[in-house]
Amino acid sequence: MAATNSRSCLQYLIHLAHDHLDFRLPVIFYKLFQTFLMCSYTYLILYANTPVSICSVALAECVCMFLSLYFSRSAFELWGHGQTHSELRTSLLNYPMENMTPFMRKDSTYRINVYTFNKTLEFADRIKRIDALDYLPFEGTVSLKSPQHVFCLLEDYGTDPNNIPEHPDYIYFGRWIADGQRELIRSHSVKNRHFIGNTSMEAGLSFIMTNHAKVKENDLVFDPFVGTGSLLVACSQFGAYVCGTDIDYNTIHGKGRSSRKNQKWRGVDENIRANLRQYGTEKMYLDVMVSDASKPVWRRTAVFDAIITDPPYGIRESTRRTGSNKDMTKPCDESHVPVSQEYHLSDIFSDLLNFSAHHLVMGGRLVYWLPVYRPEYCEEMVPLHPCLRLISNCEQTLSSHTSRRLITMEKVKEPEELDSLAHLSDPRFSPYQGHNAFREKYFSGLNKKCAKEDNKSNVNGE
Ligand SMILES: C[S@@+](CC[C@H](N)C(=O)[O-])C[C@H]1O[C@@H](n2cnc3c(N)ncnc32)[C@H](O)[C@@H]1O
After folding, report:
1. EC (predicted)?
2. How confident is the model over 30-56, as pLDDT tens digits?
């Protein structure tokens, strides 16, 4: 972050990316709560659904907090704002001169950027906007390539692309101080990832999950349905040690058919470890192994700081577990390949919650996706557990009739024997059987065509 001196009463402007709006509020509020505990002279005005959020803070910690989140583009020192350019002018002329002059000296270089939200301005109009700021006492030299100071005029034209106003709804001017984590999403795009599969989770959503799970340096994070390890990649970026399991031998060993268009078989070294190596976080990789999530192989200790996962929904990959309905009387030899049977979604979720209750440390978080059939959705469908508190439940729409919900839970108590019978005394703890028909509903009659289209583009984050 560019250095500032001890100038008082600074207001900061945080420019947030305008996507996945539903997901950012829980993260902001959690982080705010944490930050508020640290600095009592802080207040904050937040327009959660607008691309620009004004964050008026007395301490730079709040700005740092925002910049650590995946959806923050940049932070500015806010010098002025208003509904019109004339209001902006008045506001800028009232801004304390001693706060401005250190960045406008004769021997300095600067550049002014014009950023518009929900409208594209012609080059000539941008220049006009910059020229109109001639009432500001800039004395330095313009340098487009490597300026010492960067300023930004932000014009907000609302959020409706079908109804773009002629004049902006609101205008801000400020001095750029730092960029956020947005670059991570571009640099971690699955398009350029070494090892991918049909259901690799896109980078943006992986970072959202990581933020919801409060992943931090030296945490131990586990993904029981690890697939190609997209969630491990995101967590390792925040300094967590990562491990995972998957029932699929080929996925864990990076073998079998490739998911890339022009490649038949996976190449040498196409595996999860190589993905982390690609992003320079191989040292955070513990291991992954073939294992069935319905029969966890872990000792019953609370070791994971977070469990982050995207269970199978039965659309692009089957929901299966090892085992058979028939009696297996023959002993297994070494070449035995276990038969598998259907793993119902309701069982997947109740196993996942149970596992998390036993293996998360106290205060640790479980973050996972719950697919739902929208016409039937109600909050009672979200699986509960007596040891886990529901923190947030955010929707990502997949089609007119289906969506998936990002569920975040926090461990609040150690499991006791009676907890396994909680569903008998309180129906809220019984698995919701309606999840089991998700696949049929997804591909159901009328919606078949549109489900096919969604399947091509949406499911599992692609
Ligand atoms: C939606 S994918 C996860 C994708 C992963 N997040 C990624 O980025 O590649 C679900 C994964 O669960 C695995 N799976 C299915 N049934 C399982 C089970 N019983 N135990 C463990 N893994 C299972 C599948 O093989 C698949 O890789």
Report:
1. 2.1.1.214
2. 666 555 544 433 344 455 556 666 665
Output the CA 246–ligand 1 centroid distance in Å: 6
In angstroms, rounded to a whole number, what is the distance separating the alpha carbons of residues 39 and 303? 31
Atom from ligand 1 closest to the CA of residue 313: 1
**C-alpha 342: how far from chain center:** 30
pLDDT digits (tens, 9 = 90+) for 13-27: 888 877 776 776 666
Regarding the beta carbon of 292 and ligand 1, being less than 6 Å apart is answered: yes
- Which residue segment(s) compose the domain that 129 sits in? 12-180
Q: Which atom of ligand 1 is nearest to the CA of 228?
A: 9
Query: With a 6 A CB cut-off, is 55 part of the ligand 1 pocket?
Result: no
Number of other residues whose CB lies within 10 A of the CB of residue 384: 20
Residues 135 and 222 in one domain: no
CATH assignment of the domain containing 311: 3.40.50.150
- Residue 312: predicted pLDDT: 93
Whether residue 432 contacts residue 400, with contact meaning beta carbons closer than 8 Å, is answered with no
Tell me the mean pLDDT in the region 57-75. 69
Question: How far is it, in rounded angstroms, from Cα 92 to Cα 279?
Answer: 43
Angle formed by the axes of helices 203-212 and 230-237, nearest 10°: 60
407-425 confidence digits (pLDDT tens): 999 999 999 988 877 777 7
Name the closest-CA residue to atom 7, ligand 1: 200
CA 197–ligand 1 middle distance (angstroms): 10
User: Are residue 270 and residue 312 in the same domain, yes or no?
Assistant: yes
Q: Would you say 344 and 432 are in contact if contact means Cβ atoms under 8 Å apart?
A: no
